[in-house]
Amino acid sequence: MVLRPAGGSSARFANTRYHRVARPPKRAADHHSVMTQRPERKLRTCPIFSEPKVSLWDNRDNMPWPTAGESLLSDTVGAEAYVFPLEKWVADDFERLGYFSMFFQEQARELVRNWLTSHDKPENVMYAVGFFYRHAIELRLKSIIASHKSFATLALDQQKKALEGHGLSELWGRAKPLIAEYIEDSRMVDFERQLHELHTLDRASDGFRYPFRFAKQGDRKPLLSGIACKSFDNFVWILDGLCGWLATAEDAEEQYRG
Question: What pLDDT does residue 137 have?
């Protein structure tokens, strides 16, 4: 059974509904699992990455699909880009926390840039944008904790405990005394208020990843209900500002240490 666009082959990506059909798309024989030489992945010509308005069903032979003999991790073929090993240019594991924060923040910005040119509804990108920004903030807080000179003096189990958890307010409680060594409390007030607001919205880092959680009574509780009918533009503005404030604070710490 496979998924086929409802309404015939003319269905478009933006408003496609799928139903199950018995006829599979054209694929190589998949009755065995022998490893085979896969074709080059041409993402720039694949309709779901480059041409979202064309018929996906008509272009199904040039779309991703689980295929026998192909692995998730593979050497490059043809002109494919390859992933450069991060440890080659960022040797320290803890230093990578800051780089990962930067990566997630930039991808959140890229989603917003795409949204601004797509005329799509903000709720279609809000969860992914919010998750990227929130994770960037969490990673930056942990990076500040791990980069402080006192962290290196901790035993391994203490280092693990210092970086445990996903609650932003709890992580801020560990990072704030370190930042207070070189930034006055009065300069943290606005940041702290907005960070706690984000923590209240998503306490366990699951609000942007799931539509609900199971409450103790067994019933489902909606997540992020407080965001309905609020400004998406302001939401992005505040989150990017939180990321920027923390990155600036970490840079200031490096200058302070000399």
Answer: 98
Which of 206, 233, 198 minimizes the C-alpha distance to 222? 206
Does position 56 have pLDDT exceeding 50, yes or no? yes
Q: Hey, which residues does 80 pair with through a beta bridge?
A: none
Angle at 78 between CA 75 and CA 81, to 5 degrees: 65
3-class DSSP assignment, residue 66: coil
> And the tokens for 213?
């959680």
CATH architecture of 86-257: Up-down Bundle (1.20)
| Element (DSSP H or E) covering residue 18 | strand 18-21
Question: In whole angstroms, what is the distance from residue 166 CA to residue 80 CA?
Answer: 35
Q: Write out pLDDT tens, residues 218-238.
A: 677 777 878 888 999 999 999
CA atoms of 85 and 217, how far apart (whole Å) = 46
What stretch of H or E contains 213? Answer: strand 212-214
Q: Please compute the mean of the pLDDT values over residues 157-161 and round it to a whole number.
A: 96
Domain boundaries, the chain: 1-83, 86-257
Give phi and psi for 251, each to the nearest 5. -65, -40
For residue 4, the cross-strand partners are 19
The helix/strand/coil state of 25 is coil
